[in-house]
Every structure is written in structure tokens, then in C-alpha cells.
Sequence to fold (355 residues):
Amino acid sequence: MNKKGYEYSLIMIFIVIVALPVLYLRLTSKSAEMKKSLGDSQAILLNAPYDKEDIINYIEKSVQLELPNILAEIERTVPTQACGTNIQDSINGAFNRHLDPYIKAYNTRAYTKIPENNYEVYIEGNSMHAIAALPIKKGLAKLGTELATIGTIWFAPSFTVSATDTASFQRTIATLDSKSQACGIV
Amino acid sequence: MKLNHKAAFWGFNYILAVFGIAFMLIIFYVSVQDDVKDSSKEQAEKLSSDVELHAFFSDLIHQYGIQIASGDAEGIIERYAAKTLPKGGYDADCTTKGTDKECTLTITLHETLSKILEWSMYASPISATWVMVKLAGLDSLTKTTHEAYLPVKPGAAMRFSLTTKVKFA
Fold:
């Protein structure tokens, strides 16, 4: 091998011995800087519908706990109100008054905030449909790193609660019907 | 023609080195390709099982949220797991920290590791729990945690977390 060949070989050895470890160190230091691993963002996105359901579930369960009190307040207040007063406003008022303490408790603890005084309620058969006026804004993040969001979802936390105690439900509906008839509301 | 032995020797070495390097590069490429394929498959299965277990958790609190918040969470989780998940032993253990409840569901399986390694998420239909168990066998997923808030009474919310672990009988 001539002199030029030796020089060429030395350059190649230098490249292999020095450049490759440098490249390796650069890559490992870059990957150490990455806070998320492969698939984390996808996991957050795929879990988002269930996170949403868990929040709606909280509100729904709160209403289930308070339903006897909500129905009792409607039964108590609606018959005494003047005929010009909107019955629907009284129902919404009773519903939101009983639900808001639960929402406040949630908001003090969770990153996601649920709007208060947010529901319009429709009673149908043995079910109560709660329609949310304002949506919930939820940051998409991994559990434990809620401040490092990858995006935001907005959803309306509307739901339906069915009565287990159908007798009290029917009693409330009868109260509302008799009030409507007394005031001449069709 | 006179044969230059020295040139022939170095020429042979040169050709050997070139082929050696090419062979090593091919081995490296195949090995990296296999590693990438394996890790992406494992990652997909991990994602799939994490999401499915979140579905399990959401359904559990949807059906029994009030009872979990107010009563015997351990019994409820064990009965629900036995009803929903594959055959195995289920042991729930809950601790209360202030107003919060932290539960761990340990699934004990009677399948062998070799049997579990045969399972694939591409087999249809396959429950996510099987996939999770397979991953536990592969030591890539031993536990997963989900949490949500549950209402207790007006002005009180409870954080409920469920960690699912898998072990072999």
C-alpha cells in the first residue's frame, strides 16, 4: 500500500472511531431531552373520549344523588308561584341550585373547570334531560402532567338521568301539569 | 505474466474488507428494521390496552360510581372485574387518603407465559385485557393507572384512582 492509501485509511479510521461515537452521543442527548415517548400523544388523543365521559359521569352522578331534593323543591315552589312566572325558569333554577355545590367541589380540585349555573332541564316521562348551555374546555394531557397539554377539546356536558323512584317523578310531573292547567298554559 | 504476490495479497484483503463491511451493514439494517417493527407493534399493543382499560374504568364508575364513593369499593371492583374480564383471580385493595380513594386491582392469571406470548392483537376478536396480559408477560406493561372524580355529597368530590396489575399464578 502506498502513502496515499495509508492516509486514506487513517481518515476512514478517524471517521469511524471519532465521528460515530459523537453521532451516538448527540442522538442520545437529544432523546433524553424528549419529555414524551413514542405514542404518548396518540394515547392522550385515544383516551380523550373516555376523559370526557368521566367528567360528564361526575355531573350525572351528582344529579342522581340530588334528584330527590331537586324534585322536592320543584314540587314545593312551583304551586306557590304567580301565574306570570315562567315554570321552566323555576325548574332550571332548582336544578342548578342543587347541582352547583357539586360542580364547585369539582372545580376546586380538578384542572378542568365545569361551568356553573349551566343547565336547562326538560322532564319527559321518568327521565330528566339536562342540556348544557356552555361547553367544557379540557386540555389534552397525560395523567400527572396536566400542564403540558398537546391540545384542547370542547364538549357540551349534556346528559339524561332516569328516575329510580318513579313515584316521586310522577308526583312532580302531576304538580307541573296542574299548575299549567291552573294558569291556563297549554 | 509475473504475479505480484504482495499486490494480490492486499487486493484480496481490500475486497474482503469491502464485502465484510457490506455484510455488516446488511446485518445492521435487518436488525434495526426488526427492532423497529417489534417496538412499534409493542407500542401499538400498549396503546390499545391502555385505551381499553380506560374504557373498563369509565364503565365501572358509570355503573357503580356512587356505590364506590360511598361504600365497599373493593367488593364492587372485584365483582365487576370477574364479570367483565377473562377467567382469573381478582383481588382489589383500596386505601383511603383523606377524601380520596386509591384502589389496586391485581389480576392473577393461570395461563402459561408461552401461551400468552402466542396471543396477538391482530387476532380477532381479542379483548384488550388479553393484550395487556400479554404485555405484562413481555414485561413492557405491568401496571396502568386511571383516575376520575366522584361526587360524595354537596360540596365534596372524591378522587378515585384504579391501578391494574397483572401477575401469574
